[in-house]
Every structure is written in C-alpha cells, then in structure tokens.
Design a protein that fits this description.
globular; about 60% helix; single chain; disordered C terminus; mainly alpha
C-alpha cells in the first residue's frame, strides 16, 4: 500500500491523505468492535462511519477490508459490511486454536529464552499486578480507560511468555487470536458470572509464570487450563443467539 511521494495516496478519493489514516481507522474500528461499542451483527455503513470517526471513505474501506481478514467484520454483496456476529462455535474454535499456537510458542520460548526474556516476563507480571491493585481500589463501575489499561497489560504478560519463540508467524497468529477472543472475553471481566466457580486469575498468572521460568512442561498445561477456564466463563456469561433453522441438523 505504501508508494512513492511520501506514502501519500496519488489517485481517487482522499489523494492528499497520509497512508497512516488507514491505520488510524483500523485501530479505532477494531477497538470499538472488540469493546462491543459497535455491536455484533451491526451494519457498518460507510457514511455513518465517516461521521462517527471524521475520516473519509478510503481509509475506512481499507480498515474494513483488514478487519474482514481478521474475522471481525463480514462483507456480503448486497448488504455491505457488518460486525461479525458472536458465535459459540467461533469462540471455542478461536480458543482451541490459540492454545495450539501459544503452547507451541511457549515451548520454543522455554527452550531458547535468555535472561532478558525471563526479566521481561517478570516485569510484565509486576506491571499487570500493579494495574489490578489500582483497579481494586476503585469504587463503582470501571471506566473504559481502566479496562483498556488492564487489557493492554494482560496482553503484554501473555505476549512476554511467548516472545522468544523465534517465529514471527507464530507471534502474528497469537496476536490475531488474542483479538478474536478478546471481544468475547471483555464482557466477562467485570464481576462474577453466576453459576461459575470463584477464580483467582492473578494466582493462575503466577502459576504460569513460575512454571515457565522453571522451563517446565507444566507451564503448557497451566496455560491451557487458564484459557479453557476463561472460555467456560464466557459461555456462561453470553446469551448466545439461536442457530438459524438451516443450521439445525436432525438427530442421527
């Protein structure tokens, strides 16, 4: 997408806009989809998005195509773009695929990780703990900025665990799957979901970190259990839409 003339578009709509507007549109749209501000199934009309974000059609189209490749946006010939619907099957598939990718990346990191890798894990864990303590002192409902800060540090911790895997592709897939599961996970972060057992997430992170620093295969098991516990809470916290009649198969 980059071209000559200082990375500016040279024809069509928005010819004088810097290419970074596409990135800005992508980041803002993705954040609103993940946080549920743009609801699942919601149509994404270009004119409405232009008014909402103050951006022209070209960067918005670029962002929507990119989000479609990440399974956060759907596109149909007659209806245009829409936010991808929530789906139990999609959530479970993303979770299990994330486990496959991150467990392999974790094994490689434990095999090849150095002192700096270990220090980064400890630092990320400490930073996440500080944010947890800070939010525990807040009264009332969490603000969006607090939630985003928590999510950023949570992502940094899990990214630090696998950062020394030596495979940019594994890391790229892990990042994409993190976002795919994030839009399901965010609604379950506030409060205890009825019908699910009490959970000490900080202790789970500590357990994963300690086993990782020991270079123990237990770390892979703990990470898997951690993600599957989260998936179970998500299943209990979301009112899943009924499948379309065409999706219902008769019993065999």
């Amino acid at each position: 997408m980059a071209g000559a003339a200082g990375n500016r578009r040279t024809n069509g709509e928005g010819a004088d806009e810097p290419a970074t507007l596409g990135e800005a549109a992508y980041q803002r749209l993705r954040a609103d989809i993940v946080a549920g501000v743009l609801e699942a199934g919601k149509p994404l009309r270009l004119e409405a998005l232009r008014q909402r974000y103050g951006l022209s059609f070209s960067p918005l189209r670029e962002a929507l195509m990119r989000l479609q490749s990440e399974r956060l946006v759907l596109s149909t010939a007659l209806r245009g773009f829409s936010v991808a619907p929530l789906s139990r099957d999609e959530m479970q598939d993303a979770t299990e695929t994330r486990i496959l990718i991150e467990c392999e990346a974790l094994r490689r990191s434990m095999r090849d990780g150095d002192d700096d890798w270990e220090a980064d894990i400890v630092a990320a864990f400490h930073s996440l703990g500080l944010q947890v303590e800070r939010q525990s002192r807040l009264s009332g409902k969490l603000e969006a900025a607090d939630m985003l800060a928590m999510e950023e540090r949570h992502h940094q911790f899990h990214r630090a665990l696998i950062a020394h895997c030596g495979s940019p592709r594994l890391l790229e897939m892990a990042d994409q799957l993190y976002v795919e599961t994030q839009r399901y996970r965010l609604p379950s972060l506030v409060g205890q979901v009825a019908g699910t057992p009490p959970r000490d997430v900080a202790a789970e992170h500590q357990q994963i970190m300690d086993a990782t620093l020991r270079r123990s295969e237990d770390a892979v098991r703990y990470l898997t259990e951690h993600y599957r516990r989260t998936a179970a809470i998500i299943e209990a916290s979301i009112e899943w839409p009924l499948p379309a009649r065409s999706d219902i198969r008769p019993p065999r």
